[in-house]
Design brief:
Helices cover 74% and strands 0% of the residues.
């Protein structure tokens, strides 16, 4: 089973933004839920950008570690949550 095989909760953009706002306040459970609902799409994006599954796995971890660190240090991003994490995925894929 891969991350793209996992069932996804139906969460719209407003809900994802709300989860990220709670995570920015230090709510680790909200960040975990944000990960659960966004990671399958981000993983698929990373696979499209770098067709090596093991590399995509590493990049996915790096993206969410950076996302958590940025939230703790800087608070909410200036754009919608899904857009923000997608942008970080593009940046990470381009670095290697």
């Amino acid at each position: 089973m891969t991350i793209t095989d996992l069932p996804r909760a139906a969460v719209d953009d407003a809900d994802a933004d709300g989860l990220l706002a709670r995570a920015a306040g230090g709510d680790q459970q909200a960040f975990g839920t944000f990960y659960d609902v966004t990671a399958p799409r981000i993983y698929a994006l990373l696979l499209a950008l770098t067709p090596d599954a093991s590399r995509a796995d590493i990049l996915l971890e790096e993206v969410y570690v950076e996302a958590w660190a940025r939230l703790v240090d800087r608070g909410m991003p200036p754009c919608p949550a899904r857009e923000w994490v997608s942008l970080m995925a593009h940046q990470h894929a381009g670095r290697r």
